[in-house]
Amino acid sequence: MIVFATGFALLLAASQGEVYVARGDTLVISGTPIRLHGIERPQNSRKEAETARQQMQRIIEGSFVTCGISDKRIGHQRIGTCTANGEDIAAAMVASGHALDCERFSEGRYRALEPKGARSRLVPSQQCEK
């Protein structure tokens, strides 16, 4: 793992062996859980949640993953923006229909990427609505 730190910003970079998908919105790099900034995983069914986790696994598989981490947390998780070989993982999750834009935190950054019908299929939680 490569770690770079400046002020409150932290960048973690990991090879595939040091990163795994905990949930459809959370990666773990060398033991550090990182919640992807601005998206929300499906919460309406276990099947949808597991499908989202599997999709993120496909996105990162064989990739070099980097995360810019903020000083904010949700519980024990750090909040970060992560890429797999330079591709924004959160954007890929939303565009594939496996996660939703969390407008409260993203300011709508990923909303246009949501496929038609995603909001009716993957019901957003109240915490993500403005």
Lay out the secondary structure:
Blueprint: E1 2-6, E2 9-14, E3 19-23, E4 26-29, E5 32-36, E6 39-40, H1 46-60, E7 65-74, E8 77-84, E9 87-88, H2 89-95, E10 100-101, H3 103-106, H4 118-121
Parallel strand pairs: 5-8
Antiparallel strand pairs: 1-2, 2-7, 3-4, 4-5, 6-10, 7-8, 8-9
Summary tags:
alpha+beta; OB fold (Dihydrolipoamide Acetyltransferase, E2P); eight-stranded mixed beta sheet; two-stranded antiparallel sheet; 4 helices; 10 strands; globular
Architecture overview:
This protein is α+β, with helices and mostly antiparallel strands and 130 residues long. The protein has a single domain (2-128), classed as OB fold (Dihydrolipoamide Acetyltransferase, E2P) (Beta Barrel). It is built from 4 helices and 10 strands, in the order E-E-E-E-E-E-H-E-E-E-H-E-H-H. The chain has helices at 46-60, 89-95, 103-106, 118-121; strands at residues 2-6, 9-14, 19-23, 26-29, 32-36, 39-40, 65-74, 77-84, 87-88, 100-101. The strands form 2 sheets. Strands 1, 2, 3, 4, 5, 7, 8 and 9 form an 8-stranded mixed sheet that branches. Strands 6-10 form a two-stranded antiparallel sheet. Strand 1 (2-6) and strand 2 form a beta hairpin. The radius of gyration is 14 Å and the shape is globular. This is Nuclease homologue.
